[in-house]
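Components:
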Amino acid sequence: MRWMWIDRVIAFEPRTRLVAVKNVSLAEDHIHQNFAAEGDLPPCPVMPTSLILEGMAQTAGILVGSVHDFREKVVLAKVVSATFERDINPGETIRYDASIERMDDMGASTIGIVDRFSFADNAWAPVGRIELMFSHLDQNRAGVEFPEENFVFGENFRTLLEGAGLRKFQAKA
Amino acid sequence: MAKSRADIEADVRDVLVDALGVDEDDVVPTATLKGDLGAESIDYLDIVFRLEKKFTTAEKPFKIAQGELFPENLMTDPSLVEAGKVTAKGIALLKEKVPHVDVSEFEKDPQITKLPNHFTVKSLCDFVQRKLGS
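Structure:
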């Protein structure tokens, strides 16, 4: 399994906004881990909110990393706020819409909107809002040395990003 | 119209409540950001971003340069810190660069690790007031 919680980049405005989607499948193990069948209660397979958060962190993190062409080691430093108003079920699509609110040499703050597309309703519906802060590790080292190699945006990660279609958008930009 | 001290204090309180998730009643002038309000390193950047947003107006941007509010990079210079203690030169530089931090107590035992203990809610309000006035 690869720790990649977005499937495809669908919109990219350099330095400003990145939108990505993920399709949620009943075949994914994590869907079954929160609310298994218990007694008379049927199972309730839903996308865990912790992993929705991770999907937004990846979407927003890629956006922040792309500003300096992935040279900075961008790490999630703080979940400022995360609110969820409805579940995401198997067969639905998650849309992560991330925007940079503020950025400087030290890091960035982002605002993210999460929606889901339900084929049952044939419509997008709001799921939640996630505000994050990212730190540029080498600018905030406080005496700690990190390797030169960029372990956040490594070679494997770049291959995955190409698969997710970001390069196509970057080439256009 | 210029903001009054009470307005500034109320706005700073809002910023700290949002950034640190603390209770409004805990944000008193003497409260230290680290010790009393539990701020961690990344929270300082969050506070800077929020202050900029809060105090920027259509007429005038409120932009805080790196090291202007918190003396992050000041203290990595070896001539300013010796064996974990801020030198006389370092103290003079603190007074010049971050006058909103009261270093009179810190000077008596200037261990660099204790510097954040002197960063209070009042320091933030003083900083904003001075910056808005200039």
